[in-house]
Each structure stands twice: as C-alpha cells, then as structure tokens.
Amino acid sequence: MLPIGIAGAVVLAGVTVHSAFATPSSDGLIAEVYGGGGNSGATYTNDFVELANAGAAPLDMSGYTVQYLSGSPSGTSKWQVTTLGGTLSGGGRYLVAEAAGTGGTTALPTPDATGTIAMSGTSGTIALVSGADPLTCLTAADCAADPRVKDLVGYGTAVVHEGSGAAAGASNTDSVTRAANLADTDDNAADFTAGAPTPQSSGSGTGTTPPTTPPTTPPTTTPPAAARIHDIQGDTRVSPLDGKAVGDVPGIVTGVRSTGSSKGFWMQDPNPDDNPRTSEGIYVFTSSTPTVAVGDSVTVTATVSQYYPGGATAGGQAVTELTKPTVTKVSSGNPLPAPVVLNANSVPDAFVPSAGGGSIENVPLRPSEYALDLYASLEGMNVQIANTRVVGATDPYSELWVTVKPDQNPTKRGGTLYTGYDQPNSGRLMVQSLIPAATQAFPVANVGDTLTGTTAGPLDYNQFAGTYAIQARTIGAVKSGGLQPEVTDKAKDNQASVATYNVENLAPDNPQSKFDRLAKGLVTNLRSPDIVALEEIQDNNGATDDGTVAADKTLNKLVDAIAAAGGPHYQWREIDPVNDKDGGQPGGNIRQAFLFNADRVGFVDRPGGDSTTAVGITGTGDQTALTASPGRIAPNDPAWNTSRKPLAGEFTFRGKKLFVIANHFDSKGGDQGIDSRFQPPVRSSEVQRVRQAVIEHDFVEQLEKADPKANVVVLGDLNDYQFSPAVLSLTGNGKVLTDLVNTLPVKERYSYVYEGNSQVLDHILVSPNMKHVEYDVVHINAEFADQTSDHEPQVVRLQP
C-alpha cells in the first residue's frame, strides 16, 4: 500500500473543467483497477488491471502497454510499464497481473500478461498506452494531449485522471470497476464504482458482464497452528509462519489504534521465552475500530502476514501482523507486561549490519550489537523511555524525535549531528501518540527541549516515515531547553553580504503571515543581506497547473513584505522555466531567484538568458564576463531533467565583479531510507546530483581559468551532505570551490533536521582566492516546531 496523494483539478478562470482526453475508445478500455492485492485485508494476492474490448473485432495487444503513475507525482516521478501481447477478443476481457503482496488468500485467474508494478491500494493512475515507451506526462492536461494514451483511469485522490474527478472508493478490499455496459464518458468519477474485485481473464469467458462474486478457493482443511507470539515473530525480521493461519494466540492488549487506515491493536505475551531475538509483541490489524481495551487478556485466531509499509519495492522493513482476526476477550484490567527500558546503556552504538546492499530481513537478529536489530527484536512490545532530549521538533503530523543516547554526536544547540553515512545515530526514536487529542494534546517541542518523565507504549515500525516509533500510551511533558532563533552579525560597510534561503514552495496564495515571517527573518535575523538567492519560488498561481510560469506576483509580494518589515526595497532577477520541466510540486514551476539591494550592489543586466539558452563565459582577466546575466548553466543537459537549472548572475560591489550562482539540485526522492531492510541503502538519486555537480564544477573552473582572481559564490539547496560525492564533485575536493560549512566548528555543521538528524543540505561555496569571508548558518527554522521553512538560511560576509 503506497501513500495516499492529493487530488488536483484543472482550473481555468476559477471554474473546474473536465480534462480534454481523446475521443472515448470504441474497443480497448480499462475495465477494472485493483491495487490492494496482497495488502492487509485483501482477498487476492496480486494487484491487477483488467481490460475489456467494447468492440466486436479482436484487438492485437502486442503494440500496447499498461502503465502506472503514483497518485501524487512529483517532478521526479516515472511511469512504470508492463508490456502486453496476444489478442483481446471482441467483447472479451484481458487480465494483467501486477505485483504480489504478502497478504491475500486467493490467486488471480490465469493472467494474459504479467508485470511487477506495486500499485497503491488507494490512489494512482493507470493508462492503456499505444507503444512501449514510458509516458512523460505528470498532469491531467499533459496526459490528455498525448495521443498514445488510449484510455486512462485515475483512482482515489489521483492528480492525473479523466474528467471531473478520480474514481472513488479504492482500498485494500475494493477495486474500481467500469459499468457492465462499458460506458466511457471520459469522466473517471462517473464511469467507475467501487466494489469487491472481480478479475476476469480471456480464459474466464468472453462476455462483458463480470461475475457477481469473486472466485474462491476450496476451504482449507488444515486447522490453524497453535503458536505463541515469539513463535510467530521468529528470530529474523520475517515470520517463519508467514501466510499461515494461527489459532488462539494469547496476549495482553498494550495499545489500541482507533484512527487512520490501519486500525488495530498491539498485544504482548506475558510469558516470554528466553530468546532475546524473538519479540513477544505483535500488531493485530482489525481494519475497523477495535473492540478491545488496554489491559484486556485476549486470544486471537488469524493469518500471519508481512506488511511492507509503502509496498515491497520501497525498501522498508517488514512488519509482522495478524490479519483477518477473530478476537476472544478472556478478561479485563490485567497488568501490562513490564516495559523494556530504552536508554544509552541498552541501545547499541552500532546502527545496523551490512549485507553489501542486499536484504538483511532473513539474517538472524543481533540485538546486543545493532540498534535496528534491537528495535526489530522488540517490534510490537511495550517499551519505555525517560527524560529524553528532543532532537527533531514536533511536526504538523504530531510526531517528534528524541534520542536515548544524549552523548551521541550532540550539536551545539541540542540536536544530534549526522556526521557520515556510517553513523546514522542509533539513539534516535520517533514518538507518536495513541492518546486522543481531545484527551491530551500532543506535546509541542523544539530541538533541545526535554520530554520529561516516562513515555511508554508499543514499539512500531512507522508506515509513512519508514522508521521505528514509540506509539505512546502515556507521554511525558515538555521542559523547554530555551532555544532561541539566531541573529547574524551585521556586515561592515566594506563587506558584501550574500545569503541563501529555501522558502519552501512560496506562492502568492500562501498566507500573508508566511511572507511577513520570511521578511522578518531576512531583515532581522539575516540583517538585510545585499544579495539573496532564493529557492522554491513558485509561479503566480502556485500549484495550479494551467501553463502559468511567471513569478512576478510571488516576488513582488515578498519584496513588499520585506520593505514593510523595515528592510530595503529589493530588486529581483530570475528566469521563468519551461512549464512543468523543473520538478517540484506539480504545477508550481519552482525556480531560483536573486534579490539585491541596488543601493549596495549592482546587477549587470546582459540580455540573452532564457530558460533554454546556456550561459557562457567570455573574456579573460578583469574582462571576464557572463554571456548573459541572468543566465542558466547548461539547461538542456539531461542532468537537469525535471530539476532546477543553476541561475548565474553577474554583480558588482565597489567596482569589483562578483559572480553568483544559485542552485537547487535534484532531491533525494527515491532513495532507500537509512532504516531500510537493504543495507547499506541505495542512494539512487545521487547519480543525477553528481552529474549536475560535475557540469557546474566545469563551468566554475572555466570561469576561474579565465580570471584566476574571479570572485565566485556558489550557493543554495544542493540536497546533499558536505561529505557526499555530489558536493565533493562540485568543489573539486576543495580545489575549485571552498565549502564554507567545513570552516565551522563540527557541532555547528547543519542546516536541516530530518528524522532527528541535524544535517547539511544547504551550502555556500566560494572560490579559493576569497580569503576574507565570514560565514554563518542562521538557525531560525529547522529546530523549531513553529517554522516558516524547513531549511535554515545562510549568509556570507565577504570582501571581493
């Protein structure tokens, strides 16, 4: 089951209109879509797409593919392809089997084609496509314009769909099905209804009316196996009883989840075995609101399932669950099993064993050696922490991060520093709450605060974050650590101040309060820098995807807010991107932009720079110049596909040239998490960032060869660490650029906090000849629950 996306619609002049897809197909159509196969509660073991032929003549399928797109695609999202073959007879059906999950009891009818796509059970887009090349469209309008799309169905909250809305009602147990008469009005919401899945292949008959009940397998005569929880959990990350029925499993209920899509409860055996590798706790997935309470003694007859949050291909750890349960309450008010105390002594320093990039899920656990093995051996068990320091502030989803190892890589301001790929910091844990908000609000905490007292509850593997989390049944109180936003030093009159700030999808329809807070940060905390490189400036209508690319309204609104906050009336320069080609939030057209104080610095406006024309370098010595200002570096190189292109500008300060390059490299989307079952995890997105870095390195090197005294500032959101291959490729290991974050004391080297790790994503780099520089990461956002952006701004004060 993949994450649920966000619905979108094409909007013109404030009126929602149907997407203009081609004339409805008269023969091949998508008849049914089911992405819940193998998920918790599913009957069928596989996802599937069923096609139908509304015509009388047979249709040769060898030239067609079925393709899948996530429900809320980002700029880096790709269509996944399954090739087809054979013939779809007139009035017939054609079944395409996709990925299997770990649940379900019933195999599909013999499919006509087979793929490996792990579809979401709740939200996604399926297209029947003429040709084998993957589609490139990521919006309804662009897909409507692609003549290869023969039919398309968006379901759940899919952004890409036909008509007024996506087909509603998809789930682990329900597919979306076209009406029996195969009506196709190019409106998914109208043409499809939800119901029990009814897969038909060519071998199921040629009629167009689906069976009224799904196929069934003969009832098993094997009685459920007698087992206790430690037998089910086993000594690895995968249950030895996966897929088997177990009967009368005893336990005490230790936590109940009554909200969300994964309702159920945790229970724990009060009579443990003596094997530290085997957990005594387990999650019982009920799908509906549980009828048990904490302290109930129960027995459960159910099927053992391995649930992979995000799908089996996402790389996350498997969670062993009991599904399709029959629960019998034995008694109430029983004492809970004593919690396992997690602290600096009980949690190992080492994080996870290596498997050379392979899976560790079948390797016997070593809980005394590795933190992730310890957490896996405690999966579902009652655990407790006490007086822990907060290392990740409370987020909008009522989550925070603590460390149980307070001496592990502490930052100067109370966080936990991420120092390298081999040190993900084993003491970090997420805290969530099982307590209803009406009973007790989730604590609001900043980095450096302390979660006092005890916090206790079952240890879960969080399905969205892909990490271990305490599902707090009781939660401690927050004691403030006194963290305050920083204010940088004021630049001297002979210093040019240059800053970078990722303003997190800034658009004109954002609340005025966001503009005002960004302005206050720039004026008060950054002391009104002479030049500001901004990242994530959206176009004039934000995420609405109607072809708008200009961002003058966004920038003018920010400039006005800065002036109102007492700052200078900045001028700005930017280059509008090609619509939907630079990644980021679909429709947002994010880009970099320069703000500059014309009373302090000059900008050399040199025509010729646009979204597709590459900027070059001309002249030598003090005559070295950009061929266009502003200009983009190599915008047509494949390195920048669905990613932001570097924005280069030529400035002057006190008669000296200053070359500034603003960046927003490709995101880390698609990388395996540090808690992945594949160890070490694959950083697939790194390939594109390294290529981007090499291209920019060569541009800067050419600039410095033309003028060895050139003053060059490269800055922005590089989406990677100071020790990463991408950043080292950009700096030429320090020979072409100096990464200023490395000049700070070690405990201050961070600009972003993710999953409790304080880390570097944003950088300011300067040419090595620039000696008189003062650099500061200004901490006003990432460590605070109340933040304007998730990134910290940075500033350098320099004398060209």
Task: Set down the secondary structure blueprint.
Blueprint lengths: L10 E2 L2 E2 L11 E7 L11 E8 L5 E2 L3 E7 L9 E4 L3 E2 L4 E8 L12 E2 L9 E7 L9 H5 L4 E7 L19 E4 L9 H4 E4 L29 E2 L2 H5 L11 E13 L6 E5 L12 E5 L11 E11 L11 E13 L8 E2 L29 H7 L4 E11 L7 E4 L24 E6 L16 E13 L4 E6 L4 E3 L16 E11 L5 H14 L5 E7 L14 H13 L6 E4 L16 E6 L5 E2 L13 E2 L6 E2 L4 E2 L14 E7 L2 E9 L21 H21 L5 E6 L7 H7 L6 E2 L12 E3 L2 E3 L2 E5 L6 E5 L16 E5 L2
Parallel strand pairs: 9-10, 15-16, 18-20, 21-22, 24-26, 28-29, 37-38
Antiparallel strand pairs: 1-2, 3-4, 3-13, 4-9, 5-8, 6-7, 6-11, 11-12, 13-14, 16-17, 16-19, 17-18, 19-20, 22-23, 22-25, 23-24, 25-26, 25-27, 28-44, 29-31, 30-31, 32-36, 33-34, 35-36, 36-37, 38-42, 39-42, 40-41, 43-44
